[in-house]
């Protein structure tokens, strides 16, 4: 294969890699790797689309901002991190979620990263990005899909911030609506609560309003199966197994309160007392939560029986989870005849998105392999087979040289050297075989290797003598001339190979960089 053919092959490999990593990988959920649970093989054949409403559940996009990384605001590094994080979620939404044709979309909170700490201008900028990523503007062609929102701790903060940054809650409610509300999808009722306030100061207005909302729910007659929506997961014992879809380490309960013990500064899960209160008051058949950034399925015990909870993983690839995901939920359009059939009323299926970190690692690996291939490939006009045969021949010569040195070394053990001067006064070393070779180590002290014997007369060569002429001056001059010449030749070859490699890299980049840029911006611009 010639250099031109190698360059063409690498161009094709890079093009295929970019097309997969930037486009095809996001088609997998909609191409069969993920499907609506009521359409799976495990569901009853009588369960058809008209019997269910299709709900897509996403959580924790946590749009990066100046609070996310220790980088200067508006710096190029931060802007690039934001762009690639936003681009991944936009691709995930438009190429993985929407092709599944959901009827309803849920967001379980944490839309921003530093929500409570952003100025109004910064918050509006992040909100504009959120609407662009998920096509939430009124003029978007997907605006006919109902969307329901849940508040998260990165949106309004924990209880300790509610009195200090009241504007964070006001602007959230102005844009996304109430933090505690109920709605029906099909014949299933969903109860959305503000989990950030439920463990706060009981005398506080926000906590009291959340408890009043839950109390009113508990007093109503339950006509449909209920699903509890909470950003913060319910309490579970430490090291509770999260099931096979968990990819990160289990996170145990950690709750930090203010000095007076009234307000929450941070918490991983709702407290055990509040969790029990929610399960007994709302009586859900299922709990959906976020906050943890990874998948988790646990079973809670309530006085009405076991209740399953699914914690949905983050939809972003830059939030500590290498396996971003979303969830598909099928809610029934029929009222189950008995309580035992309530599980058929709500079916769930987690779906995983492309592993963006692994894609970028493959890009770097392919780049390294490309450089090695271009650097080590033989020059034009030289076949690959001939190139490798030369390398094999060089290896054989090296092995023969080593063996020859070993043989000469062994012969030296059974010979002696004599120093002889000829008529012109030149000195010669004559190797002479011993009459009795050294056979045992014990005889080593009798015959010394390389014994030099002074002879005043000139001797003629015999069949047992090998003459070795030492001409030090001639060899030194020859080596002095050969070394610089060999060094210059090697340097010239290296420079020529580097220039050739750079030229071919430019050709590969000229073909694939425009393709990469096109793939980036085709998904970013409004469709």
TrEMBL record:
Gene3D superfamilies: 3.60.21.10. It comes from the Eukaryota. It is a multi-pass membrane protein. Residues 90-294 form the Calcineurin-like phosphoesterase domain. One of its GO terms (molecular function) is hydrolase activity. It is found in: Membrane. GO terms for biological process: GPI anchor biosynthetic process. This is Calcineurin-like phosphoesterase domain-containing protein.
């Amino acid at each position: 294969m010639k250099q031109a053919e190698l360059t063409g092959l690498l161009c094709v490999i890079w093009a295929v890699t970019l097309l997969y990593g930037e486009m095809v990988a996001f088609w997998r959920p909609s191409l069969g790797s993920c499907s609506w649970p009521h359409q799976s093989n495990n569901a009853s054949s009588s369960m058809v689309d008209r019997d269910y409403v299709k709900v897509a559940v996403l959580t924790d996009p946590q749009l990066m901002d100046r609070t996310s990384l220790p980088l200067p605001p508006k710096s190029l590094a931060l802007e690039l991190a934001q762009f690639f994080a936003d681009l991944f979620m936009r691709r995930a939404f438009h190429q993985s979620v929407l092709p599944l044709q959901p009827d309803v979309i849920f967001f379980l909170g944490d839309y921003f990263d530093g929500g409570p700490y952003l100025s109004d201008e910064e918050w509006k900028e992040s909100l504009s990005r959120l609407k662009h990523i998920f096509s939430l503007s009124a003029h978007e062609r997907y605006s006919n899909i109902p969307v329901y929102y849940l508040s998260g701790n990165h949106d309004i903060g924990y209880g300790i911030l509610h009195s200090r940054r009241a504007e964070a809650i006001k602007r959230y409610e102005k844009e996304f609506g109430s933090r505690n509300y109920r709605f029906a999808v099909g014949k299933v009722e969903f109860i959305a609560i503000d989990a950030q306030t439920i463990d706060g100061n009981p005398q506080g207005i926000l906590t009291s309003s959340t408890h009043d909302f839950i109390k009113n729910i508990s007093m109503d007659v339950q006509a449909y199966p209920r699903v509890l929506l909470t950003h913060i997961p319910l309490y579970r014992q430490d090291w509770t197994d999260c099931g096979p879809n968990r990819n990160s380490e289990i996170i145990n309960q950690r709750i930090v309160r203010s000095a007076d013990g009234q307000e929450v500064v941070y918490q991983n899960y709702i407290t055990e007392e509040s969790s029990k209160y929610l399960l007994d008051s709302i009586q859900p058949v299922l709990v959906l939560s976020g906050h943890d950034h990874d998948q988790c399925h646990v079973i809670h015990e309530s006085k009405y029986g076991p209740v399953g909870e699914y914690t949905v993983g983050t939809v972003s690839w830059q939030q500590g989870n290498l396996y971003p995901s979303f969830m598909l939920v099928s809610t029934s359009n029929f009222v189950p005849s008995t309580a035992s059939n309530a599980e058929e009323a709500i079916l769930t299926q987690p779906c995983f998105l492309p592993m963006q970190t692994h894609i970028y690692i493959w890009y770097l690996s392919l780049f390294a392999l490309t450089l090695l291939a271009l650097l080590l490939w033989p020059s034009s006009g030289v076949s690959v087979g001939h190139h490798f045969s030369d390398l094999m021949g060089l290896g054989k010569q090296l092995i023969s040289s080593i063996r020859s040195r070993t043989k000469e070394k062994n012969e030296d053990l059974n010979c002696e050297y004599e120093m002889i001067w000829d008529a012109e006064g030149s000195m010669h070393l004559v190797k002479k075989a011993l009459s009795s070779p050294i056979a045992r180590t014990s005889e080593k002290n009798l015959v010394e290797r390389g014994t030099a014997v002074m002879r005043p007369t000139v001797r003629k060569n015999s069949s047992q003598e090998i003459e070795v002429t030492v001409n030090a001056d001639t060899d030194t001059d020859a080596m002095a001339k050969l070394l610089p010449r060999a060094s210059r030749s090697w340097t010239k070859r290296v420079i020529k190979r580097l220039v050739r490699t750079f030229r071919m890299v430019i050709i590969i980049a000229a073909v694939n960089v425009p393709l990469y840029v096109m793939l980036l911006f085709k998904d970013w611009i409004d469709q």
